[in-house]
Amino acid sequence: MIGDFSAGNYRFIPSVFQYSAGAAADDGYEIERVRFDRLVPLAEGFAVAAKYIQEAGRPLTAFCACELRSPAAFSEEGFRAFNLHYVKTLSEWGIFDGTTNPVARSNVCPEFDPPSEPSFYAFSFTRPTTSKAPSFVIAGGAEAREGGGTYVERTVRYRDLSPEGLREKVRFTTTSQMENRMTAFGFGWKDTTGVQAYSVHNFHHALVDELVRRGALRSGLTWHFARPPVVDLEYEMDCRRVLRETVI
């Protein structure tokens, strides 16, 4: 099921209260991705994003995706507490209605030189365009099945760091998370302009069969030496098709 967030000129894949599973610009609009040259604390990042979006002549509701960095992986309870804090700004911007959140997101934890507090790495927003080219951002997804239950119950090969365990985690994330989400929008790997992976484990043995042969690396791969945001998740990915990218 695809939701329509007309106030932001984009569609989204409904997921959980803290984020959507992906956002795609409406016809006549494109997504611009803005990456910070250095990590910026959450409140400051929201303020900079608001200024940038408004100076581009767009409403704050055009905010459609963000990439965050956190000091360390959260417990399930800690992750929920962080998310309740995070969505307050989205509520103030008229994006989160208390139940449905259209904004796609990734939030990972650098293994080295982590920020002292949750911080912005990048954000994306929609803007008008005359181009017919589509653009989308797929939210970060790890090796946890969606639905009810704890992460312990939903995690693929829970705490299994063997080569085959990591391979299955990569396979699940590639197919059940990234591919299923892109398919919901009518896209596939052939449409992507950027793919990112997040892990502190060596998953090179899975690259050829689980990523290269599937066409996932048509634009290469950016590997961030970072952990997913919840303890005992080991591998995460996100991907996008964005033709306008800026570093500030």
Structure description:
The protein is α+β, with helices and mostly antiparallel strands. Helices cover 27% and strands 30% of the residues. The chain has helices at 42-55, 76-92, 151-154, 163-185, 204-212, and strands at residues 3-5, 10-12, 22-25, 29-41, 63-69, 104-110, 119-128, 136-142, 194-198, 222-224, 226-227, 236-241, 244-247. It has a seven-stranded mixed sheet with strand order 1-2-3-8-12-9-10, covered by helices on one side. Helix 2 (76-92) links the parallel strand 5 (63-69) and strand 6. The longest helix has 23 residues, at 163-185.
Compact description:
With 248 residues, this protein is of the alpha+beta class. The protein is 27% helix and 30% strand. A hairpin with a 4-residue loop joins β1 and β2.
Secondary structure blueprint with pairings:
Elements: E1 3-5, E2 10-12, E3 22-25, E4 29-41, H1 42-55, E5 63-69, H2 76-92, E6 104-110, E7 119-128, E8 136-142, H3 151-154, H4 163-185, E9 194-198, H5 204-212, E10 222-224, E11 226-227, E12 236-241, E13 244-247
Parallel strand pairs: 4-13, 5-6, 9-10
Antiparallel strand pairs: 1-2, 2-3, 3-8, 4-7, 5-7, 6-11, 8-12, 9-12
Number of strands: 13
> What low-confidence regions span 5 or more consecutive residues with pLDDT below 50?
none
Q: Roughly what fraction of the amino acids lie in strands?
A: 25-35%
Helix content range: 25-40%
Determine the number of helices (DSSP H or I, runs of at least 4 residues): 5
Strand order of the largest sheet: 1-2-3-8-12-9-10
Quick one: biggest sheet? Answer: 7 strands, mixed
Kindly provide the radius of gyration, computed on alpha-carbon positions and rounded to a whole number of angstroms.
17 Å
Q: Taking all residues together, what is the mean pLDDT? A: 96
The secondary structure category is alpha+beta
